[in-house]
Fold this sequence. Notes:
Structural class: mainly beta
Bound molecules: zinc ion
Mean pLDDT: 84
Shape: globular
Oligomer: single chain
Helix content: under 10%
Order of helices and strands: EEEEEHEEEEEE
Number of domains: 1
CATH class: Mainly Beta
CATH superfamily: SET domain
Amino acid sequence: xxxxxxxxxxxxxxxxxxxxxxxxxxxxxxxxxxxxxxxxxxxxxxxxxxxxxxxxxxxxxxxxxxxxxxxxxxxxxxxxxxxxxxxxxxxxxxxxxxxxxxxxxxxxxxxxxxxxxxxxxxxxxxxxxxxxxxxxxxxxxxx
Length: 143
Ligand SMILES: [Zn+2]
């Protein structure tokens, strides 16, 4: 009874971000151009999959590989776009908004060229028990 998977997602302005080595965790997403605040930057690319059996992975993955969309579905971003490398920061400059079966990426404030784009996993289903290395003065220590 498998459901047909949808592939969704886009970066609104190709070339506006790149994936590079992060001081926070592994790889991260960096602005290639100055990005204005409160603007939609694009969407997390991925495949809509059933959440059944993913609960643990959704909560413990250190990067955005799965995002819960609703009680039944998750977005599997393992073959996603650059935004699947968004790291957590307790002083994030971006946030994710679930809209139907899509996960939109918005900037919270202006982001300078070369700055790392981050989201606060504390407001996503990723909240777990991992130590945070974001380095923000307001760091909560765990996520
Ligand atoms: Zn932190």
